[in-house]
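Deliverable D2.4 — example input (structure tokens):
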């Protein structure tokens, strides 16, 4: 297992607010706080999500967005370069290093007194476009696979800005988040690759079922069928 660690450069929480020019509310607006804050199984103390059907909860307790990704957003949307700063996509923690090519599904980290597991990628939605007043941001983030990721909390604890996020456990068969995102987007993935991803330790159950369902569909609708024994 490689040595992987990064200090938290920002810790962000916020209450739900009304989106600009819209009657709907969102928890995408975050304020930077130094901490310490309690990180429980459902997230940081003082943080709120407007729609708990698709945001928050134990499997999306903490959102991590790599700050280096903002440079790619600023290059694609130069008119928003000044607005693309840490915290502006609704993330809870930011790091200057680490990105989707370095972390893996199921990775276990320590942060302050807490212990976290990377459970799934973020799926960007329309609220990102509404938050910044420009269409196409969420689609670009999805296409490029730079949406960051979510953690579940294995052990609650106090966290604060400056705490070091440290990798302590990684499965030998793990996929990087970049590989996982590519597999989710590719038009005709191999059934065996989908099943490998579906069986990754630590992967959120909904993602696992989506990959298994896609594997079954491809198995039933292609001539070169792969065995589904691993799906049992």
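Example output (designed residues):
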């Amino acid at each position: 297992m490689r040595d992987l660690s990064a200090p938290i450069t920002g810790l962000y929480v916020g209450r739900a607010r009304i989106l600009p020019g819209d009657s709907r509310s969102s928890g995408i607006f975050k304020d930077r706080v130094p901490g310490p804050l309690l990180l429980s199984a459902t997230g940081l103390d003082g943080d709120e999500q407007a729609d708990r059907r698709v945001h928050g909860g134990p499997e999306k307790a903490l959102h991590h967005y790599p700050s280096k990704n903002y440079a790619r957003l600023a290059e694609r949307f130069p008119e928003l370069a000044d607005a693309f700063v840490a915290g502006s996509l609704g993330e809870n923690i930011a790091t200057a290093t680490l990105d989707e090519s370095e972390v893996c599904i199921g990775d276990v980290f320590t942060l302050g007194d807490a212990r976290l597991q990377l459970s799934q990628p973020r799926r960007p939605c329309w609220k990102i476009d509404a938050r910044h007043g420009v269409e196409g941001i969420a689609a670009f983030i999805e296409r490029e696979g730079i949406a960051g990721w979510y953690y579940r909390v294995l052990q609650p604890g106090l966290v604060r800005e400056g705490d070091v996020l440290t990798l302590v456990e990684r499965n030998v068969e793990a996929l990087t988040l970049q590989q996982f995102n590519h597999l989710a987007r590719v038009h005709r993935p191999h059934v065996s690759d989908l099943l490998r991803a579906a069986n990754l330790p630590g992967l959120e159950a909904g993602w696992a079922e989506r990959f298994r369902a896609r594997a079954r569909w491809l198995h039933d609708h292609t001539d070169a069928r792969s065995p589904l024994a691993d799906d049992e």
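The radius of gyration is 18 Å.
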